[in-house]
Design brief:
15 strands, disordered C terminus
Length: 347
């Protein structure tokens, strides 16, 4: 539930296993069967990796010569709310019917229920404070033109607020957005609200007839959206350096070191990439040994190389078929490691 995974799968010539870890490097073109033409500069996958990783995702490949290749990437899931409640839609409709151009500024707190749990500010105080910030921004915005009507529709019980600006210009709408963002940022800094982001995007909706060059309805609707949220994960991950045994179907095991853990999964360093969605048995060498099953959810090649040019990988496993007793142990383990990590950081 924390990530989206996309797979692009073909039935082409395939890639040799020895070349798989190289395909995301710049200017890299792996060997191809005779008669197959090479194209491009070897930059496409390097650019893809850069884009995916900058968005907090992972990208990897699996292939078999003569069978085909599978390329996967993940991106963090982005939770949104219903942007336009019915009262807001009705007010917009009335303006459009009168032929009035307007801007709608929609301020949304992403996954508000979870966001409230993450912050130290009381939720009722947060709602009241944000409402006051918006009212103050509206007063400052109205100084230049007191006659221009603005309509504010709040719904902070759901973490959303809408501001309708009939007859406003692009410059005016942008100025109000800047005021709102500045005041909210300052509020977050003052109250030490961490892991929060504020993003601003713009979508313009115009009458289709206008785009076709025909006679068109004179009103235009422009929407600006301000998102407030946090790095949303279903489970909080904590640093966790402990040896784990990866057990094969034949009962053989290899020992590796974990990197981090959560109630929902574990990340560890591995000498070779396992298959995506492969089921793995694990033994965690904790004071109370845990035997767990996990599914390979994502793979990421680490930057440093091992001797002889071998690659090393980070693997993310999601726990499957967890028993209630194991889940309670994991919860306690994560909680204790979170406290210990916090104490180390303070020191």
């Amino acid at each position: 539930e924390a990530k989206i995974r996309v797979g692009v799968i073909d039935t082409g010539v395939g890639i040799a296993e020895a070349d798989l870890y190289k395909v995301f490097d710049k200017f890299m073109q792996v060997s191809t069967p005779s008669g197959v033409e090479r194209k491009g500069l070897g930059l496409g996958l390097a650019i893809a990796r850069e884009l995916v990783e900058r968005h907090g995702g992972e990208i990897w490949a699996e292939s078999e010569l003569g069978v085909g290749s599978k390329f996967y990437f993940t991106l963090p899931r982005f939770y949104t709310l219903n942007t336009l409640a019915k009262p807001t839609r009705e007010r917009i409709k009335n303006f459009l019917l009168k032929g009035i151009r307007l801007y709608l500024i929609s301020l949304l707190i992403i996954n508000y229920k979870e966001f409230k749990k993450r912050i130290k500010v009381n939720p009722e105080k947060l709602s009241l404070d944000l409402k006051r910030l918006i009212e103050k921004a509206m007063v400052e915005f109205s100084k230049d033109d007191k006659e221009k009507p603005q309509i504010t529709i709040t719904g902070f019980a759901k973490g959303e607020c809408s501001v309708i600006l009939p007859g406003a210009s692009e410059e005016e709408a942008s100025r109000l957005c800047s005021l709102l963002k500045g005041k909210i940022n300052a509020y977050f800094l003052k109250n030490k609200i961490e892991e929060a982001f504020i993003a601003l995007g713009m979508v313009s909706y115009k009458d289709k007839a206008q785009l076709d060059g025909a006679q068109h309805f004179s009103a235009n609707l422009y929407i600006k959206e301000i998102y407030i949220g946090s790095e949303m994960r279903r489970y909080k991950r904590v640093d966790y350096k402990v040896d784990i045994d990866v057990i094969s179907g034949q009962g053989n095991s290899e020992t590796f070191q974990a990197i981090d853990i959560s109630e929902g999964g574990i990340c560890f360093s591995y000498g070779r990439p396992l298959k995506t969605d492969a089921l793995v048995r694990l033994r965690l060498k904790t004071p109370q040994e845990l035997y767990l099953k996990g599914r390979v959810a994502w793979i990421k090649r680490q930057a440093q190389l091992m001797p002889l040019g071998q690659a090393r990988y980070m693997l993310g496993l999601e726990f499957v078929h967890l028993k209630d007793s194991d889940r309670k142990i994991l919860q306690r383990l994560v909680r204790e490691n979170k406290i210990n990590t916090g104490m180390k950081n303070e020191k």
